[in-house]
Amino acid sequence: RSLKWLQTALERKIRADPSDFVYIAGLHCSFGNIYFEKKDYKEAMKCYDKSMNCYKLGNLTDHLNMASLYHGVARIYCAQKKYADAFNNFQRSMTIQERYLPANHSDMALNHSGIGDVYRGDGQCQRAMECYVKAFEIRKKSLPPQHQDIASSHRDIGLLFEDMTMWNKALEEYREAYNIYRQSSLKHQNLAEIENDIQRVSSKLK
């Protein structure tokens, strides 16, 4: 979804049904996600704040979709290396998910992976590995074997092994991720990134 499409959808919804707080909050959250991908964290946070206000106006702060909002906020803090704030928001997201979703639901893996990113950024490799493995196990049970989220888990684990200078294990994980991305019909930046990862680690093994 483009920013232009979202803006049009938002304006139409506000005119037609301004009390549909969940839908409007979701649009603001989608705005935030796009700005996050553009690395415009300030604008992304503004959008997430607007989303939060919608949930508050509707007295819906325990709604399942709030989990996505907290997750988005956590990703911003993680990118800014504000790990304590990131951890708190990932935990808030997970707490809401636990009220609505089974433990092995694929969405649960997102927060385990996010908390793993926090620990990895903070240099706590063992805790990061526990979170990444948990996310991977959930995805293996709940998703098709060639799903890109499984490839993402392999890459997360590979990056952590690389941080630990365990080059062979890192390369093994990167190759697993590559095999999944290569077979995907969605040819995007993930394939280029994993190719760079493989080349980088391979050069260290020469």
Brief descriptors of the model:
79% helix; globular; TPR-like_helical_dom_sf; TPR repeat
Description of the molecule:
By secondary structure, the protein is mostly helical. The chain contains ten helices and no strands. The protein has helices at about 5-15, 20-35, 40-55, 65-80, 85-100, 105-120, 125-140, 150-165, 165-185, 190-205. The longest helix is centred in the middle third of the chain and has 18 residues, at about 85-100. The relative contact order is 0.07.
Tally of extended strands? 0
The parts where pLDDT drops under 50 for at least 5 residues are none
The helix/strand series, from N terminus to C terminus, equals HHHHHHHHHH
User: What is the CA-atom radius of gyration, in angstroms?
Assistant: 18 Å
Share of helix among residues? over 70%
Largest pleated sheet: none
What percentage of amino acids are in beta strands?
under 5%
Q: Span between N and C termini?
A: 43 Å
Q: Would you spell out the secondary-structure blueprint of this structure?
A:
Elements lengths: L2 H14 L4 H17 L3 H17 L8 H14 L3 H18 L5 H16 L3 H18 L5 H16 L3 H17 L5 H16 L2
Helix pairs in contact: 1-2, 2-3, 2-4, 3-4, 4-5, 4-6, 5-6, 6-7, 7-8, 8-9, 9-10
